[in-house]
């Protein structure tokens, strides 16, 4: 590891964040946190001999949020991939207020499309007009510019080389990003050839040696621990943005409980995937884990382990490309009274993702996750 993305304050110098003040008996705010009581009404149903019995119930929830976001680090599994290099480049471009020329004119870096950074929330009607406020003024939201980023990849290209390979950014922007991207080299990652397509083998030149999965787990735990200590972080998130793996078997004795999951890693069981190792390592180090690919990483044993350690785990695919379009189209069709039975599509812009999915076992994860035929 030769470098990492160090966060800086996301607000412009002299710019003061506006505050949204809520005057309500259900909201309490002090210098450190916001606390709110929420009443949720839900119908409960019971099938009886006489018919369907409906009972309205009210549930009270207490939500508590810190006013100051924690100092947060993001570790990307697949840092040198298209998603990883593009995300890091976008953050640098926004931090440095970069501009670049395109055939349509000069483009400035922005966070358009970000739910937390650019979307608004409708609060209501004030008697004269509709009232909308920025999402990030309702509750404290961490700016992407404040993230400290590092990660792993099975390929040893630095992020400038990875960015060139991804072919996402305009050439002028790539050169402006070069001084910031070139020093960043991914940490060695885990490579089990059985879990991703064979055509990925030529990229795997930056891997943790050996076949002992227990040692691999300890290696990743050490990486997470060192990253947290080096940057004095309060919170660490491990995000899988690497290749889609094939589905792993979910069977009794292998991964149905936390104890089974840890024992399977100790025995280097064949069905323990790289993403299983990263998820378990994150949980044991108190880091949250997000799965950005459609494989079944979060088996019952890993979910149980996360509960025991009070760590958040979630995710089953970013659904940021074709999948998002399909989701919108299906919602439109269903609301129009039509029932789509299948969607046939052709992935011709998927870069290495499409290459990895060209093998049937990896595509099964995508197909199963998205309900494709």
Automatic annotation (TrEMBL):
Top-rank lineage group of the source organism: Eukaryota
Q: Name one GO molecular function term.
A: inositol-3-phosphate synthase activity
Broad enzyme group:
isomerase
What's the Enzyme Commission number for this chain? 5.5.1.4
Concerning SUPFAM superfamilies, the annotation shows: Glyceraldehyde-3-phosphate dehydrogenase-like, C-terminal domain (SSF55347), NAD(P)-binding Rossmann-fold domains (SSF51735)
**What subcellular locations does the record give?**
Cytoplasm
Q: Which GO terms describe its biological process?
A: inositol biosynthetic process; phospholipid biosynthetic process
- Is the Iron keyword given for this protein? no
Keywords in alphabetical order = Cytoplasm, Inositol biosynthesis, Isomerase, Lipid biosynthesis, Lipid metabolism, NAD, Phospholipid biosynthesis, Phospholipid metabolism
Q: Name one Pfam family in it.
A: NAD_binding_5
- The record places domain Myo-inositol-1-phosphate synthase GAPDH-like at 321-367
Give the pathway listed in the UniProt entry for this protein.
Polyol metabolism; myo-inositol biosynthesis; myo-inositol from D-glucose 6-phosphate: step 1/2
Give the reaction(s) catalysed.
Answer: D-glucose 6-phosphate = 1D-myo-inositol 3-phosphate
Is Glycoprotein set as a keyword in this record?
Answer: no
What Gene3D superfamilies does UniProt report for this protein, alphabetically?
Answer: NAD(P)-binding Rossmann-like Domain
Cofactor(s) needed: NAD(+)
Can you list the GO cellular component terms from the UniProt entry? cytoplasm
Q: What does this protein do?
A: Key enzyme in myo-inositol biosynthesis pathway that catalyzes the conversion of glucose 6-phosphate to 1-myo-inositol 1-phosphate in a NAD-dependent manner. Rate-limiting enzyme in the synthesis of all inositol-containing compounds.
Q: Which family does it belong to?
A: Belongs to the myo-inositol 1-phosphate synthase family.
Q: What protein am I looking at?
A: inositol-3-phosphate synthase
């Amino acid at each position: 590891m030769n470098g990492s993305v160090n966060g800086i304050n996301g607000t412009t110098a002299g710019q003061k964040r506006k505050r949204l003040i809520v005057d309500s008996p259900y909201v309490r705010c002090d210098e450190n946190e916001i606390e709110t009581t929420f009443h949720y009404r839900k119908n409960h149903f019971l099938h009886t001999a006489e018919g369907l019995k409906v009972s309205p119930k009210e549930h009270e929830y207490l939500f508590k949020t810190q006013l100051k976001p924690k100092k947060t680090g993001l570790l990307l599994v697949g840092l040198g991939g298209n998603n990883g290099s593009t995300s890091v480049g976008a953050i640098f471009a926004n931090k440095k207020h970069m501009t670049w020329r395109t055939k349509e004119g000069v483009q400035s870096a922005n966070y358009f499309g970000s739910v937390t950074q650019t979307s608004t929330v409708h609060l209501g009607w004030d008697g004269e007009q509709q009232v909308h406020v920025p999402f990030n003024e309702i509750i404290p939201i961490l700016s992407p510019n404040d993230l400290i980023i590092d990660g792993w990849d099975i390929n040893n290209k630095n992020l400038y080389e990875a960015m060139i390979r991804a072919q996402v950014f305009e050439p002028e922007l790539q050169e402006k990003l070069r001084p910031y991207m070139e020093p960043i080299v991914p940490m060695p990652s885990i490579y089990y050839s059985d879990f991703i397509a064979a055509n990925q083998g030529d990229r795997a030149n930056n891997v943790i040696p050996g076949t002992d999965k227990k040692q691999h787990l300890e290696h990743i735990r050490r990486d997470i621990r060192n990253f947290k200590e080096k940057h004095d972080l309060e919170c660490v998130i491990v995000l899988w943005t690497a290749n889609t793996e094939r589905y792993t078997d979910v069977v009794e004795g292998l991964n149905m409980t936390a104890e089974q999951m840890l024992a399977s890693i100790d025995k280097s069981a064949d069905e323990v995937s790289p993403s299983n190792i990263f998820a378990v390592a994150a949980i044991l180090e108190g880091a949250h884990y997000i799965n950005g690919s459609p494989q079944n990483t979060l088996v019952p044993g890993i979910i149980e382990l996360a509960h025991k350690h009070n760590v958040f785990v979630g995710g089953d695919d970013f659904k940021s490309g074709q999948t998002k379009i399909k989701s919108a189209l299906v919602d439109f069709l269903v609301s129009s009274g039509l029932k789509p039975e299948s969607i046939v599509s052709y992935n011709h812009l998927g870069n290495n993702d499409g290459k990895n999915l060209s093998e049937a076992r990896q595509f099964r994860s995508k197909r199963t996750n998205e309900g494709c035929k």
